[in-house]
Every structure is written in structure tokens, then in C-alpha cells.
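Anyone have C-alpha cells for Condensin complex subunit 1? Sequence:
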Amino acid sequence: MGLVGAVADDTEAEYIRYVCETEIINSDNLLGTIKPMIWTLCTNPDKYKSTELQAASSLTLAKYMMVSSKVCEENLQLLFTILERSNEDVVRANLVIALGDLYFRFPNELEPWTPRFYAR
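Reply: yep, here.
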């Protein structure tokens, strides 16, 4: 007998959550292999000075964080550091918008960072 109603919805939601947390961004696929490069670009803005590259890499990091709460927690400090230290308006604007999305998606993970978000 198949699942119906709320039980089926819960099972499907749990499966989607599992896929997001474990399969979409892991080292066994293309997205997972690119993640270290994105992290390197975001952590070395003095080496990679291109505004477009900084904007793209920081926004890509934020999008990766939207997929998985684990990736989100691991990279929150980096994202806030980029937001605070970047001299580029486009980078800061992109991250403010992305953080709004992250606050909606993972409110419990971002709650401790709220004072830092509104400090500036």
C-alpha cells in the first residue's frame, strides 16, 4: 500500500532534505569538485582582484550555502568577513541579498550572526 496525504508529503520532504544535505554538493560530483576553488577565490581577494571574479565567487558561495545547512554553517564566518571587508559595492549588495535568502532558509543557523549583520 502506497503512502498518502501528509505522510507522503513528509517522506518526500525528508528525501529532498537528505539529497540537499548529502548528494548535491559532495566531492563525488562536479559541484563538489568546484567548491574548493570557490573557497580559494573567496579567501584570497588580494590575489584575485577582479571585481567580477570577487562578485561571482562570493555569490556562488552564498548559493552553495543555500543548498545545505552544513555548508551554510561551515562558511558563515567567511561570508560575513567578505561582507565586512569588501571594498566593492556589488559584492556587498549581492551578499546582503543572499543573506536575506539564507535567513529565510536557515534561520536557526544564522540567528547568532544577526548582530553582526546589522552592525554596519
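Residues 103 and 110 are 6 Å apart (CA to CA).
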